[in-house]
């Protein structure tokens, strides 16, 4: 069963002169096992949208259900894992172990079951078990982010919801998180992430949801996204469009550097072949 939003609107400072409609009449459906990217400019309504998925916020009108249940129910809280942008704000225990164990213990799992889940989660995020006794606040930004992610994974969620999980990380840290999310998705968990980092995320996204001024302005596949004008584009797609506009007959709907290279070499070979055929045949 999916996450379903039906005609959802959310207001802040309702009935005051400062009233803001953060989401307006939004309809959205997210299936289990999907990898979804939520894109949009600052203030578009992205964070407001994801906070509806586990009952952190409630709609002022319309309806949100997760697997047919109210998102504020305890059952949903264990099915929807959340990781916020500033991992440090999410950590509050004395050791990494306690931090990751907090969710399972809070949901009533035994010490033994919790330990199994902690070990499974640190492995999933490629953290060394030796780190479990460390103070979370002595870790690097990338490690803190992985601890926050492990804390969410220890509940074995059906939906993992993230707010800009690779922002501010170094290239190695970014790769660790992206590889982990790919693995998590391959194991059947839906991954739903807000991101401005199209370069890192684009090859992973199966569906893109673009939020603009509180409304869903576009939703569809990467291919449909690239075919739609005036969207923020990943650098590789911008380059292919630029080549096309300069008369190089490439297919601009590519998602990775490897695909771009293959496409450019294909076009180069075709042009060379055509030119060779135009040359007058030399007499022997
Ligand atoms: N607690 C709040 N009180 C009042 N207004 C708020 C509150 N939270 C968000 N807003 C406003 O609601 C609108 C949507 O905000 P939201 O944080 O959902 O956008 P966003 O797309 O996540 O932005 P960003 O990329 O900057 O995080 C913005 O105009 C924002 O200023």
From TrEMBL:
What family does the database annotate? Belongs to the ABC transporter superfamily.
Keyword Nucleotide-binding set for record: yes
Task: Write out the function statement from the record.
Answer: Probably part of an ABC transporter complex. Responsible for energy coupling to the transport system.
Do you know which PANTHER family this protein is assigned to? ENERGY-COUPLING FACTOR TRANSPORTER ATP-BINDING PROTEIN ECFA1 (PTHR43553:SF24), HEAVY METAL TRANSPORTER (PTHR43553)
Residue ranges occupied by any ABC transporter domain in the UniProt entry:
5-238
PROSITE patterns, A to Z: ABC_TRANSPORTER_1 (PS00211), ABC_TRANSPORTER_2 (PS50893)
* Gene Ontology molecular functions: ATP binding; ATP hydrolysis activity; ATPase-coupled transmembrane transporter activity
Question: Any idea which UniProt keywords this protein has?
Answer: ATP-binding, Cell membrane, Membrane, Nucleotide-binding, Translocase, Transport
- Quote a single Gene Ontology cellular component term: ATP-binding cassette (ABC) transporter complex
Recorded protein name is ATPase component BioM of energizing module of biotin ECF transporter
**Species this chain originates from:** Methanosarcina horonobensis HB-1 = JCM 15518
Which Gene3D superfamilies does the record associate with it? P-loop containing nucleotide triphosphate hydrolases
Instruction: Extract the Pfam families matched here.
Output: ABC_tran
Kindly list the places in or outside the cell where this protein is found, as annotated in its UniProt entry.
Cell membrane
Give the primary localization class: membrane
Provide the membrane topology annotation: Peripheral membrane protein
């Amino acid at each position: 069963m999916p996450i379903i939003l039906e005609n959802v609107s959310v207001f802040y400072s309702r009935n005051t002169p400062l009233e803001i409609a953060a989401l307006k009449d939004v309809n959205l459906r997210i299936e289990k096992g999907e990898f979804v990217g939520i894109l949009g400019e600052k203030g578009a309504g992205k964070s407001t949208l994801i906070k509806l998925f586990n009952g952190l916020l409630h709609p002022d009108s319309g309806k949100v259900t997760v697997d047919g249940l109210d998102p504020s129910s305890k059952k949903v809280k264990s099915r929807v894992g959340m990781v916020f942008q500033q991992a440090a704000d999410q950590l509050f225990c004395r050791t990494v172990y306690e931090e990751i164990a907090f969710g399972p213990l809070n949901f009533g799992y035994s010490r033994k079951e919790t330990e199994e889940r902690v070990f499974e989660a640190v492995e999933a995020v490629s953290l060394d078990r030796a780190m479990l006794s460390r103070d979370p606040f002595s870790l690097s930004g990338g490690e803190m982010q992985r601890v926050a992610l492990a804390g969410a994974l220890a509940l074995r969620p059906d939906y993992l919801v993230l707010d800009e999980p690779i922002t501010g990380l170094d290239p190695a840290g970014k790769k660790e998180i992206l590889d982990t999310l790919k693995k998590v998705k391959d194991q059947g968990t839906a991954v739903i992430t807000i991101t401005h980092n199209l370069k890192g995320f684009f090859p992973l996204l199966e569906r893109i949801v673009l939020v603009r001024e509180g409304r869903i302005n576009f939703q569809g596949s990467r291919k449909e996204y690239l075919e739609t004008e005036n969207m923020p584009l990943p650098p590789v797609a911008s380059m292919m469009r630029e080549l096309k506009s300069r008369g190089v007959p490439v297919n601009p709907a590519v998602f990775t550097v490897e695909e771009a290279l293959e496409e450019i070499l294909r076009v180069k070979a075709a042009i060379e072949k055509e030119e060779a055929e135009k040359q007058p045949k030399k007499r022997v």
